Predict the structure.
Amino acid sequence: MVMDIDEKLKNIIVAVDFSEESEKAVEFAAGLIDRKLDTTIHLINVVRPFFTPIGDTTGTTEILRDEEEELVKSSRNKLERMVTSLKSRGLKNVQGSVRVGDPKNVIIAAIEEHKAGLIVMGTRKHGFKRGIFMGSVSERVSANSPVSVLIVR
């Protein structure tokens, strides 16, 4: 199935982590679309899960769950501000969601959910050691995505 450019731009996923790089990606995606097209931008923030120890009797599990909930709440507030800002600038179809999971898997799953034709994301240089062991989210999404991925620097 070949999508034309208008079809690819009907639903765009922008992965955000609130870094300067992801803000550039949001701005790029906003500038990319024609306001006359019925395009929806889906801002997605992924919180990595806090893994809790098995058989914990020290209360660590509750503390970690509370920390995760606070991070999700904070991320939702930041995302709501981004959505409001974009809408105030004339983008009428902007949605935001915060999800918990592995960023690559969540972003790839969102493609089918939103019938997205494009993913836009920023990238950061993490250095050689961290890159070797973890790889960047943008690299992993790009390598596994069935749709085009635009990486903004």
